[in-house]
Give the backbone structure.
Amino acid sequence: MYCDLHTHSTASDGTDAPGDLPMLAKQAGLSAIALTDHDTTDGLAEFLAAAKIARIRAVPGIELSADPAILHADTDPSPDQPPRLGTLHLLGYFIQPEAPLLAEVQAHLREARAQRNPQMIARLNELGMDIHYDEVIQIAGGNIVGRPHIGQVLMQKGYVKSIHEAFSRYLGGRGEAYVRKDRLSAEQAIQAIHDADGLAVLAHPTQLGLESASQLEHAVARLKTLGLDGMETRHSDHHPRDTERFSKLATKLNLLTTGGSDYHGSRKTLALGCQKVPLSVYEDLLESHRQRIGG
Ligand code: AMP
Ligand code: ZN
Ligand code: FE
Ligand code: FE
């Protein structure tokens, strides 16, 4: 029996409605699924209602984007050569969708997107591409407008052949139109997840872009001092070698482990459930959550 604890819906940048995911998960042979949309709980009510009908175990979740700078603070003292920052995403599991602090954080992150997205569009315009923010908002459909939506417009207009090319040329960390949007500290993200009764888990640790094992251990240990509960060991970006070393680190630091596909529907080629995460991972997470809210 398997689960998938990392998925996205149309409430952020996936292509399946939150209400369709439980049945799709069931059809993929899964016994439990978490919805972890970027920076929003908008899809959770629909997702949980559909999961009841589909009779599948469901986890209300979120994936918050946070500022990775603190993880580099002690490793590169040179102001002339700031470290190349990776991506810090924190997953929240078993959250109360309406929790007030988490609602504040979501509003703050929407504001960060509202400032960053038009800057990226302006850069694309400077590069000679005819693309308007309104077109991107229309594709996004919901409250969360992100780079995959910009990528889709670029593709539809023939400026790139794939979303992948859109990221490697323009939208990715080294792309010509990239603008950072780190507004939330890791501490604030973890606090907001805990305030919503959730468990905080470091998503896809490879995306931190930390080169050495000791840098990674230092970073995760630091997050643990801020209250981190677990780390994602199985993920579609991870080589089996990564999963193994992250599991060892989790054991060493006494952290829970989780896993998922990072399914985005047709915006990515990954299948729901492709990470073959054992259902026991879900059960351990549930038990930790019970202990947390019980005590
Ligand atoms: P944003 O939240 O606007 O910064 O966009 C983040 C989204 O872009 C996440 O769903 C990522 O999976 C996706 N993403 C990041 N890098 C790439 C890439 N190289 N190719 C495709 N999608 C990517
Ligand atoms: Zn996404
Ligand atoms: Fe992520
Ligand atoms: Fe994700």
Q: What stands out?
A: The beta strands are 2-4, 30-35, 57-66, 88-93, 199-202, 230-235, 256-260, 277-278. The first strand starts at residue 2 and ends at 4. The mean pLDDT is 94. The CA atoms of residues 86 and 208 lie 4 Å apart.
